[in-house]
Amino acid sequence: MNAFEFMLRNWREILALTGEHLLLVAASTLVAVAVGIPVGLMLTRKTAWKRPVLAVANIFQTVPSLALFGFIIPLPFVGGIGARAAVVALVVYALLPVIRNTVTGVEGVERSVREAAVAMGMTDRQVLRQVELPLAAPVILAGVRVATVISVGVATVAAFVGAGGLGTLIYRGLRQNDDRLMLAGAVPAALLALAADAGIGLIESRLDARRQFARGGAKRRALVSRVAAGALAVAVLAVAGLALWRSASRADVKVGSKDFTESILLAEIFAQGLEARGLSVERRYELGGNLAHEALVAGEVDVYPEYTGTALMAILKHPPATDARAVYERVKADYAARFDVEVGPPLGFEDTFAILVRGDDARRLNLKTVSDAAAHAPGWRAGFGQDFMSRADGYEGFARAYGLRFAGRPREMDLSLSYRALAEGQVDVIAGNSTDGMIATLGLTQLEDDRHYFPPYEAVLLLRRDALERLPVAREALQSLAGSISTDEMRRLNYEVDGNKRAPAEVVREWRRLKGVRQ
Amino acid sequence: MQPEADGAVVRFRQVTYAPAGAGAPVIDALDLEVRRGETLVLLGESGCGKTTTLRLVNRLLEPTGGSVLVEGRDTREWDAIELRRRTGYVIQDAGLFPHFTVGRNVGLVPALEGWDEARVRSRVEELLRLVGLDPERFASRFPSELSGGQRQRVGVARALAADPPLLLMDEPFGALDPLTRSALQREFAALQRRLGKTVVFVTHDVREALLLGTRVALMSAGRVLLLDTPEAFLRSEEPLARAYRETLRTPWEVPPGAGGDA
Q1: CB contact under 8 A, A120 and B85
Q2: DSSP letters of A308-333?
Q3: Which of A476, B56, B130, B169 is 20 to 30 A from A310, alpha carbon to alpha carbon?
Q4: Residue-wise DSSP of A367-420
Q5: Are A121 and B112 inside 8 Å of each other by CB?
Q6: Residue B205 · residue B174 · CB < 8 Å
Q7: pTM (two decimals)
Q8: Number of A:B CB contacts under 8 A?
């Protein structure tokens, strides 16, 4: 299946995500215009403020978008996850072109015209509304045009904070090494940017034309303006309709997941279990970083899959521990007390860090354990995910526990890219996930953690207690999954998605059918 | 607008205009009065302060010393908007609003004053005819579709729209070609005889000053060197006035009394 066929087959999702994308861009551009134009006009009146305000707007513009989203998430009121934080970030980017062009446009109005307006006895407001604004309009609109096009691009990053949009496909494609997914996100985003550019350009040229000529070609311009106005109306209606439709969908349970295949699969398994029990489910998958946890605490999702070790250290900030049973009990008690969240029974497998080398190397050097590999490490290049590099049970402690030294500092890279890098010989050792389907696909060998450095990472589902009380049937669904997925099964499910490029929902349906249970 | 007891519509009292950081004052202890119904021409070179003097009248600028009285009242006590709506203003490149039609440009001040649409329209037609433009042909055009002379006619019409008793004109014909300029000067002189407005007119063209002025104020370095009728200006021994007079002579002009009696 090539990218084009893929898009045709998945047009519904692509359309829905395009709608979300459009909504984000429209909302943020409207806010940027509503804030930016008045600020720009204020700056033409209070000229002392002009330089500092433009300088600040300029600085915001230079912050990389991913970092900006990171800064906004923890902020009160405007932060958090979802569309609100994304709109705030997009507004920050869109402000500079709007403000700058408003100032430039107004200052570009001919001196004699401005002076005549004042001398005619127009009030400042009248000068602004009747003379400066209409004459500056084409320049201001050019700023809005730039802002919109920037927003279409930056909005792809919004997927990172769970705001949806076409970035969802791009990120999913990056994670799954699937070019078709990336194209399915990138191509509509590019088309959207072109359409926005052309659409606003049309209005712009019409404004300019009205100023330059009187009667010549009036009819044609009327037609153009009607088409532009019509297109704008359709876009606004579509966006409004989408917003209504989205706000109208109030599901019984909101199921979240982290932004990797296994988490999505586990979430989907639970979601389909709930649906089999007659509940409606809203899926809010692919929440990056700690967003899934934050969303759970905030009530934006009711449930998501987690690992006991991660909960213990990354979220509860306890020191590492090695006994699986003790870790589970500790996490369960703390979650109940601190977050009013129920920790479901272990699902049956662990997803721990897997120290991986190429199968060839393992056979050639007869490597079984990490200790075996320690002797070869000084000649190896390592590539680790950001997660492994930064967490308490990650690289530093690991290197100390085994007395490892690599050739140079490990390269920090995206987890899914590190698999590729290992297979292609760019690095010699990586830290993957023990259930990853790529391990088999790429012919990698997992080295045993013979010193038991890594804490237990049992997969569990975390569920808000208020949801459990509201929906007793959800507890039944939770219990029925206890011990139901083996490590091998999980690897296979992961492989179906990552290796065979199948949709998680379809893979889960098949698994449920094979199991023949109402899980 | 009631003149003062002595007939001055505008009066400058020891007016100084010296904005911070500008060095020498632009206007320096200026005393001047504009009488009701006269056309007072401010004549001088670029930078002599004549335009500044004009802008002090409708409070586009405020004096840094002394006071400017309009109708006996300090401009700073006037509501600036009211003062400007009762003071017509015409500038060199007309300053027409490029996004307004000719009709809307001319009808601007009446519209601001809240006249109803029909009254504005008939006033616009009347004024366009007054400045020699056919309303049928011109009212719906945009300034970019007019010649320089036509634009300047519209500028005059706009300044006259709300029938202001006082008219300020800053080199209104300065950018026109000589033939158009000469035509407009003559038309304006005729118009002024009919309307009897009080006019302050800024120019650096001595011919224009002598043609249009009831009195001519010769300005230099922010002061008035000479203030008198055109006839007196022509006889004045003031060196700058003599220099201006010299420019009226052209190389091929026959000097008076030379070779005419053969």
Answers
A1: yes
A2: HHHIIIIIS-PPP---HHHHHHHHHH
A3: A476
A4: --BHHHHHTTGGG--EEE-HHHHHSTTSHHHHHHHHT---SSSPEE--HHHHHH
A5: yes
A6: yes
A7: 0.67
A8: 73
CB contact under 8 A, B84 and A121: yes
- Residues of chain B numbered 14-73 and touching chain A (CB < 8 Å): 58, 60
CB neighbour list of residue A300: distance below 8 Å, 6 or more residues apart: A80, A81, A82, A254, A256, A284
Of A112, A119, A213, nearest to B93 by CB-CB distance is: A112
AA identity, residue A358: R
Structure-block tokens of residue A312: 């213990």
List chain A residues with CB under 8 Å of B60: 115, 118-119
Judge whether A120 is closer than 8 Å to chain B, CB to CB: yes
Q: Is A129 in the B-facing interface, judged by CB distances under 8 Å?
A: no
Handedness of CA A157, A160, A162, A168 (dihedral sign): positive
Averaged confidence pLDDT in chain A: 85
Secondary structure percentages of chain B, helix, strand, coil, to 5: 40, 25, 40
Q: Are B13 and B63 in contact (CB under 8 A)?
A: no
**Encoding tokens for residue B209?**
């000053």
Please compute the mean of the pLDDT values over residues A488-493 and round it to a whole number: 89
Q: Within an 8 Å CB–CB cutoff, is residue A134 touching chain B?
A: yes
Q: Which residues of A touch B144 (CB under 8 A)?
A: 212-214
Would you say the ipTM is above 0.95?
Answer: no
From CA B239, how far away is CA B225, in angstroms rounded? 10
Q: What is the pLDDT of residues A172-205, one digit of tens each?
A: 777 666 778 888 888 899 898 888 888 888 887 7
